[in-house]
Known about the structure:
Order of helices and strands: EHEEEEHEEE
Distance between the termini: 27 Å
CATH architecture: Roll
Radius of gyration: 15 Å
CATH class: Alpha Beta
Number of strands: 8
Shape: globular
Oligomer: single chain
Number of domains: 1
Helix content: 10-25%
Amino acid sequence: MPRVIHFELPADDPERACRFYTEVFGWQFQKWDGPSEYWLITTGDEAQPGINGGLMRACKESPARAAVNTLDVPSVDDYVCKVEAAGGKVVMPKMAIPGVGHLAYCQDTEGVMFGIMQFDPAATP
């Protein structure tokens, strides 16, 4: 059964947002060494695990201005078909995240956006 494995937060000022979440919740941030401006968020540790996430610079083209949950799926292609068959829609088609896997963003029948991720360390754009 797919489960939430990651969340994303948009921010107009990523450095300010990182400071806020660090001061309030003690979350740890590490700038990702990838092709886009992105910070990885660690929300827990071995004693108290959490769901980790990411923070990105908000942009006008982004379909989301709220937290977005991403679910682990065995096949992005199969789940895109399931989303559409159930009345949802794909808002950003399948894309490769280098060294991580494949990701697509969808909306449910209520307009709530979510991601679906298929892990594949060999993924390349």
